[in-house]
Design a protein that fits this description.
The chain is built from 8 helices and no strands. It is mainly alpha-helical. It is globular and about 60 Å long.
């Protein structure tokens, strides 16, 4: 069944909003309950994020593809799985939904709705981490789509849980997430000045994953094997 563009855009906006409400809301809750233990706070932020991704992709994937991420949308547009005009609308909707999700989290926790983050996330290690996190995310999506499409929600959720812990940046891996988290001066925040380098690293990682997946997943006829 084909869904209308309006349905798909609403799915992308709502899904991205719910993702950001979870990321920021669980970060606020985790920091409040962790008693200063950053490892516990990070764990409290990680598990809900991975869990909501499984739910959202499983629920909304059949409607819009459940990108929730401009880097993922860019990859699918370059693969010609999504027209350029629709891809642009996806990105705008994702960013708007992400910001709305952050504001919803602030509202739920009785915080000022409009904020600007002060948490510094700057330096080569952070940028390499974001490129790596996004490379791994996009490769996970493309490879799992080819091998076992029904496993994509679980694969993406588990990948993000892992990447929260093995990357120095805690794996934003998403330009819309980065923009929205710059508007939250909470555990999940990123200083607005640090945002452009994060986004550039994320897009670079996504493009590298697209190229690598095209080579890695290409099949050839048996008679052409060497």
């Amino acid at each position: 069944m084909t869904h209308t563009l309006a349905q798909r855009l609403v799915a992308e906006g709502v899904g991205t909003g719910m993702l950001l409400a979870t990321v920021v809301g669980s970060g606020i809750m985790a920091e409040a309950l962790a008693g200063g233990n950053l490892a516990v706070a990070l764990l409290g932020n990680t598990l809900p994020t991975g869990a909501i991704l499984v739910v959202l992709i499983g629920m909304l994937g059949p409607v819009s593809g459940a990108h929730f991420n401009p880097a993922v949308t860019l990859v699918f547009a370059l693969r010609r799985d999504l027209p350029a005009g629709e891809a642009a609308l996806y990105v705008l909707t994702q960013v708007a939904g992400a910001i709305a999700g952050v504001w919803l989290a602030h509202l739920m926790f009785d915080l000022p709705i409009v904020q600007f983050a002060q948490r510094v996330r700057f330096g080569p290690g952070q940028w390499v981490a974001e490129a790596t996190a996004t490379f791994g995310l996009v490769l996970t999506i493309l490879a799992t789509l080819k091998a076992r499409p029904a496993a994509v929600p679980m694969a993406v959720g588990l990948y993000i849980v892992a990447a929260y812990w093995f990357t120095a940046s805690t794996s934003f891996a998403n330009p819309a997430v980065t923009v929205a988290r710059a508007l939250s001066d909470t555990f999940a925040g990123i200083r607005p000045a640090d945002m452009p380098a994060f986004i550039l690293a994320q897009l670079s990682g996504a493009l590298l994953a697209l190229w690598f997946a095209a080579w890695l997943l290409r099949t050839i006829a048996p008679e052409d094997r060497s």
